[in-house]
Protein 1
Amino acid sequence: MRSSDDPFRGIIFAVSATILFASSDTISKYLSGGLPIIEFIWIRYALNTLFALCLPRPTPRPVRLSRHPVLQTLRGLCAVGSSVLFVMGVRQMTMAQATTISFLSPLLVTVLSIPLLHEVVGIRRWAAVATGMLGMIVVVRPGLDGFQPAALFGVASASCWALSLILTRKLATDDPPRTTVLWSAVTGLLLLTLALPFSAVWPDWRQFGLSVGMGVLATGGQWLVILAHRIAAASVLAPMFYAQLIWSTLGGYLVFNNLPDEWTGAGATIIIASGLYTAHRERMRARASQIAPPVAKSRVAV
């Protein structure tokens, strides 16, 4: 339950978070040209862990304990995998392309919710998923001269993030959000620490400063997302996160002097439209679940 209801301020927080995330992604693309990906993402996860440890504790229950440690660990692995794969993709793509492909995650959640959450997906949500996949094909353009194999990293990143969102849903009823945030941060930090000796180089002060700045921006974005969802409904906030494409495109132009081509623009329009429709159907499904008899809640098809 939200502590208050202030949708306007929640929207401001959500849009501000997209600016911070786009800035962090732009820095990560820049750093990937001269610093190992594992290294600067490790710095980001170190800051994320400090952030998670500083989150206020609403109950006296120790935050470190989880009723589902295996699922929490798996979620952390998916989250860090999504981060690494995203940078591997954006290193060779434009910011707009990488961000557009990442918008596949909500659609993939719909697909994965069937085997993992035993949800029933109606024909309209399936149509939205199919439309979104068509948009992805337009952006990636397999078999054409514009195809970039790096786009496959983006698709893999979106898939990992979608799986982490599914696991978040499964964990939400038993573990508080602070526990999930901390487990994900620590899991990612430990995994990256194990991999760090195999690729680490000594960064110069500029690279180190940018890595810290990237971590601060990403952590700040996460905090704003948490604040936004505390004061506004998810259905209100969902469309706002697509604003990240604007800031990512702007960052790509200002820093790398590249702009999306007409194919990326068309694909982005299709994916965003299907994502917005999916968010709308999710809201309708939630409302239907609230008024349906308890035995029928898990069988609501939209």
Protein 2
Amino acid sequence: MEQIDFFWIVLAVALYAFLVLFIFVAQRRISNLKAHLVDALHKKAEIGNFLSLFSKNLSGMSDMDGAMSRVARYVADLIGAKALCVFTLDEDGRLVAKGVYGSFPPMHYASQHVLTKPVHLMAALKSEKIKIGDGIVGEVAFTGEGVLIDDATEDPRLSNAPLLVETFMAVPMRREGRVAGVICAVNNIHHDAPFAPEQFSALRFMSDQVVLADNILRVYASLSEQQRIGQELEFARQLQASMTPDFAPPWAPFDIFASTTPAKEVSGDFYDFIEVDEDRLLVVIGDSCGKGIPACMLMATARSFIRASAERFTTLREMARDLNNDLFLDTGDERFVTVALCLLDRRSKTVEFVRAGHTELLVKRSGHPVRAIYPDGAALGLLPPEVVGDFDILSFSFLDDMSILLFSDGITEALNARGEEYGLEALTDVFREFTEGTRSPEALADAVQEAVDNFAGDEPRADDQTIVVISHA
């Protein structure tokens, strides 16, 4: 009897320990998810605001120093710093102040006179040429590692500054893998407290955006207007290429292929593949209104919002609503994006689909006709949240003999020499013919593009053309 009682006691203790451990793990996971959500929201705002800033001012930056100082002010406001300086490498390989915000002190000040007027501080700061490895700024450039100093008053590297530096942080900027400059921030705007790790992380994150701004300003400073146009196109091409996936991730039982063909040098169409979690993959296809660089910049903004929203994903409906709200607030009048979102769940072998003003979803099973599906949903960014309406969700099982085709309207609206459109019926015929055999998604996409090209002949493309095919692996 005593042995039985001892057994139940041991079992109860074990269960209690397991319960305590389970609660601890659950609380840690909730805490991590909350932190991840906050970080995703911050990054979304940072990327979106920065891209919006430069897409609106791309053609009007005549004052190079003033432009970079506006960038410095934007970053300082974002991270909560009283003063900030962007140092870049000059032709001699020395660090010089390119953009300044606030009363940022010269780092290598050697005069015995105390500088108090901002104009004198700025003149001293602009005259500095810092060698790599010299002082705290040169050390960051040499090591390629950021620094965060809670109490800068005790650091000898900052003791010669003509103004009191209470807290300090600096991060390197990199261009093509090499250090191209340093961003330094001094003194926290929050109750004279030291900079927090979150502020340091935000400064590191924004360093890539500052390098992007510096690249644009260098183009505008050194090239003629015609050369600038070509450089803008090249920049936009590189931006778009960096955002376009080379291939879809393996996601059995789904086999995915995508391709896009721009009407001009750059495209307003885009596609993307975002892993929501270990079982769900979000397939995105979108079309920004317009063509060329403005459409490309709008595409970049939309893609950034989508990726940020995916980090806090709940449902496709909520994602579509959030994207519309963000784009409506961030884009100008009559600027919008059409998007189709396809959520692939490889565990349940299901597909969820939402459409925001985009073209139909075509679905085909072997031995069955092609179905064109178009749930209700307005284009994103065109209407305010209170009038945009709801977004319908379509859910269905992904069967063994099923294929899915998503496309932009540049496919069905392609024109021939007589001004006739290629049309949905012709696209459906190609889709039906090729899905009856054992054709790969890539072969189907190639067949569609070849059929459209043959129909158009020598007529130039009037719109970007994008295709995404999903078949059973």
Protein 3
Amino acid sequence: MSLDTRLNRRTFFRTLAVGGLAAVTLPARSANAAGPNDRLTLGFIGVGTMGRGHLGSFAGMPDVQVLAVCDIVAERRDSAKQTVERRYADQRGKDRYKGCESYTDFRQLLDRKDIDAVVIATPDHWHALPCVLAARAGKHIYCEKPLTRTIAEGRRAVETAAKHNVTFQTGSQQRSEFGGKFRQAVELVLNGRIGRVHTVRVGVGGPAKACDLPEQPVPEGTDWDLWLGPAPQRAYNEELCPKGIHRHFPNWRDYKEYANGRLADMGAHHFDVAQWGLGMDAGGPVRIEPPERGNSGLKFVYANGVQMFHGGPSGTTFEGSDGTIHVDRDIIESKPAEIVKEPLGDRAVRVYHATNHRRNWVECVKAKKQPICPAEVGHRSATVCLLGNIGYWLRRPLGWDPTAERFLHDAEANALLDPPMRSPWTWA
């Protein structure tokens, strides 16, 4: 299950804040020994560029079986179905394999009683509803980051996953992969190697903007209304939903109707590392101070006085009284250089150790353990990015209560936490 239901929310937060996830261990289990009844059955919701990457990985696991794929573009779902069936035919030494169904509407996939879990790799505005409905259906969930498009959506996803005891992994792979660089940086910070942390800088792109793309004809085989889903009605444009099978990451992430800009796209990774290193997996800042103009320089202030800035070198930089650590996917460096060169001792504080994000989820589903980036952690990291966007949009200082998840004395800002969905979509 994604969290121990015997723990109340306050106890869970306290455990996260002191690095309690490091105590979670996975069983020594050989995937090669899995029989048909031991396989985790999966359905895929969204098989664009990221979804296809997940599909290829999970379909290659001997203890996983893909039963269904879903996408609103016919070419994508047909290609994904063929990919799965070719893979399984080759594994079985057969010419043909039939056993993967394709769907346009994800709700049909969720109705399948033989599917244990789902992988959600849709545009951000289509994360929350599938997460909530999948949890209600008792499906374990792997959902891409940023977890949701709005803060209220994230809290709904967290609470529903907990209520239905599903194992939930947010796709924040930097916690598990990239040679352990991010984990190393976090452990060095938590063990005081740079002294008292006073500043963090996160180098990612800018906030989201309103969509102003021109109308184009809807391609045959694309269900455009279903792509929009709960988002406002507007005309099709291939910048949002590319035609057929594409090999790039589409630009829907730039527009506030569907996502929260590059600030949230890579920010969901790098702000996540910042929160991890600050021991804030269950918390967040208490004040947001945007610049008067421009799309960088926004400041987050934490209750302990730490200041975090949107802007700086790519990745995450921790600055302390005794030095700095900068980490990105291809580098970890420090000033003085000895900080990252000297290993931590046996009694050092350690965080959750995983080396393969997808396998961590599969193993945790089977063992009923907490994965490395559960819904609460994914929600808290996404929240930082969403707060940054709101700060840039409103261009004024904002007070934030990270426990109540409300702005202080600001009705206009609070209205942005839970905007209405387009009819007929509801949470019911």
